[in-house]
Amino acid sequence: MANKLIELAGITKSYGDKTILDEMDLFMNENRFLTLLGPSGCGKTTTLRIIGGFEMPDSGKVLFEGRDITNTPPNGRPFNTVFQKYALFTHMNIEENIAFGLKIKNKPKNYINDKVKYALKLVNLDGYEKRMPDSLSGGQQQRIAIARAIVNEPRVLLLDEPLGALDLKLRQDMQYELIRLKNELGITFIYVTHDQEEALTMSDTIVVMNKGYIQQIGTPEDIYNEPQNAFVADFIGDSNIINGIMIEDKLVEILGTKFQCVDEGFGNNKPVDVVVRPEDIVLTKPGKGIIDGRVVSAIFKGVHYEMEVEACGFDWLVHSTVLVEPGTEAGLWIDPFNIQIMNKPESEDEEIFIEE
Amino acid sequence: MKKLGSRLLAGPYLIWMVLFTIIPLCLILYNAFTTFEGRFTIENVMAITDYVNAKPLLLSLNMSLVVTLICFVLSFPLALVLSKYSKNKNSIIVMVFILPMWMNFMLRTLAWRLILLNNGFLNKGLGIFGFNPVYLMNTKAAVILGTAYDYFPFMLLPIYNALVKIDKDVINAAKDLGATSFIILKRIMLPLSLPGIVSGITMVFVPSMSEFVIADMLGGNKVYLIGNVIEQAFNSGYADVHLGSGLSLSLMGLIIISMVIYKFFDKGEGGHGIW
Amino acid sequence: MVNGIKKTAEKVYLVIILLLLYIPIALLVISSFNASERNKAVWGGFTFKAYAELIQDEIVMGALYNTLLLAGGASLIATILGTLVCIGMINMKKRSKSFIMGVTQIPLLNSDIVTGISLMLLFTRFADLSFVTMLVAHVTFIIPYVVLSVQPKVLQLNLSTYEAALDLGASHLYAMWKVIIPEIMPGILSGFLLAFTMSLDDFSVTYFTKAPGLNTMSTMINAEYRKGIQTEIYALSTIVFIIVLFVLFIINRRSEKAYKQREESGVAL
């Protein structure tokens, strides 16, 4: 197993009477693109700021390569941060912004010039040295903020929802840029976002958070195909989540019908949550599927048709490139492999910790 | 909005300002360049160079600079500390420091008389600790103290407002890039608060140049400023409207020159309010 | 470790400045209750005598009355004129706007002596000095404060609400009254407050444009402070201080409430 680069142990943080993080444990390995993903208020930004040193945890430790850096201020940690609103120094030009960290380290003039040129080239903004931040567009400012951070060769780059203010096309372009940067620079990225598509696109590892607790940790495929609980299933991609009863291994009863599935170890006759992705439901002729139903509505989404099918008292969401007209009777068939069983949560917030 | 509407709305204001700002200034101009008989002359305007007038002018200049310096040196660190602890612009801590401003300044200057009089509180306090009494009343120091006390909030507020506007993440970014507190102060906070500093200096230096009441109350007849000169030119037995206008014009000219020098340093956010 | 020292130093500095600012005022308040006539540094016993004399003193109460009347009236007029001109500037050309803003700056840049003297020259040419001349003078030098308070709010205005009102059939006047004014109200109120304060606190302009016999607080103090009614003035200061404290407290309470309301209805971090 790769060595732990950063470890958070028992981090607790409250603001007034709101507890943001409660005894959180997390570790990260080197040279990965790790994303903290979750809805607003789940604690992901707080976690990032604690790693960066801009917030102090009420209790718990932050460790870097085994060393306790909990009390080290930001200017003593080998990390650099890209802030959500860029936080560029508006009274300095681009060159001075990027060179800021290097000048503090008393690097020689030639070195600084070369590094600034290199950084600008890396973010595709050659020649912008003398411009002022106010004269740049949002996307350009974002890239300058990234350049300013990476030019200091940090071990870890922390990014706080950096693409939030950009339009869709630009965001997608920047996502590829960031992946390319990570591979070229070979440093660890810790990325915070609420956008699950972004997380799925860029990450090596995703940490899904809700209300201060870690819900699941895994690769994008793991998170998407095998969500561990209803929250993750619902937050990532579209899903059909239904109450079910696990009869025995590899057999689950949903809405009165027994379905074959591939999960085991959930016990006998236990209530469980079942999740099926819309693109995994196949519509056939009535009688040819496992259950029967009727198509209620259909919307053309470009990539696929999104159809709502009423079957056995449940509104199923179905994605298909083939249109079935609303009003038509249809049969639903699901491959056992695509039925995902999850434990019901014991409370609203559940912490699950998976080793990589 | 229709053109007529705009003219109608702005009209009353413009009429008022022309009547009561521009015309009166023209009157001063006129009086400055004429004599008692009505002939044209520049001797009123040149009167500022006479020793009897130049001395108070230089004294005013000197003292205003000292007052501005004191206000700045005391209020800048205070503004720094306050901006760190404020959650929103109207935090109660700031109100507490601004509160004295809302008490009539004559009353506050009276308080300084209580303190600085030879048998006043200051000497009483010094006596308790075994120090010799100081005779500060009717000295330049007293006037400087009183003026600085009066104008302190006018320096504090603009600087505080400018500092509070700085995005906290910009400071975090500087820390993130390795800056120490000193570097952050020198390279981030000072440059970004410069408009506020210029505003504060303007609001202290310009008015204190023409102060004469505080000089009366705390300096007696010993401290004679240009404001006193002009006031006497209009109100005393030696009233000479023309001389007074000439001196006023010179004072205005000096102020305009200082303003121009300052606008040079001000990056200028046109249309900004005071607060 | 270093952090701790820094924080203590900061707090100490705050306290020192606070003391420097408030000790003079505190001395005023204490002295108002001091029975010693001549030297307040000597404690002569606690008494309310000054307060009793204050209420009966015509000079002082008259000055107080004038001050409030003047400040209130001048602020009202100034606020109306200033607000109107700001609204009028909404659709003006850049050049006209600059001209108006330039004229607005003149009283601010001039020392108050010059403002007072120039107005006195104007008034004495055509009429006697009276309450009206004082009022006019006050309006003139406080108007810029109104404009500078209202203008930023006007600049931040979202004109589409005004256009929506017109679209729904409102007349220009109705739309202005129902849409624009409420939105810039915070600026209008703070402008009024600022103007009121500057009028209350003024000496120089009042000094040169006042009618003989009519006094504001400032000119009254200037005339009387060497005479025997000092303690009454200290009593006045105490009352003023308490009122100011009270007003500030209320303002702070209201803005805190508004802030909390915004926080609760906003998105959590």
Key terms:
heterotrimer, B: 275 residues, mainly alpha, MetI-like fold, 73% helix, disordered C terminus, C: 269 residues, 11 helices
What is the terminal separation of chain A in angstroms?
8 Å
Total count of strands of chain A: 20
Determine the strand fraction of chain A and express it as a percent band: 35-45%
CATH class of the domain at 59-228 in chain C: Mainly Alpha
From the alpha carbons, calculate the radius of gyration of chain A and give it in angstroms: 24 Å
Shape of chain A: elongated
Task: Tell me the domain tally of chain A.
Answer: 2
Characterise this structure.
The complex is a heterotrimer of chains A (356), B (275) and C (269). Chain A contains eight helices and 20 strands. Chain A is of the alpha+beta class and 356 residues long. Chain A folds into two domains: 222 residues, Rossmann fold (3-Layer(aba) Sandwich); 104 residues, OB fold (Dihydrolipoamide Acetyltransferase, E2P) (Beta Barrel). In chain A, the strands form four sheets. Chain A has a six-stranded mixed β-sheet, sandwiched between helices. In chain A, strands 13-12-11-14-20 form a five-stranded antiparallel β-sheet. In chain A, strands 15-19-16-17-18 form a five-stranded antiparallel β-sheet, with no helix packed on it. The relative contact order of chain B is 0.14. Chain B is globular. Chain C is built from eleven helices and no strands. In chain C, helix 3 packs parallel to helix 6, helix 3 runs antiparallel to helix 8 and helix 3 packs antiparallel against helix 10. Chains in contact: A-B, A-C, B-C. At the A-B interface, strand 6 and helix 2 of A face helix 8 and helix 9 of B.
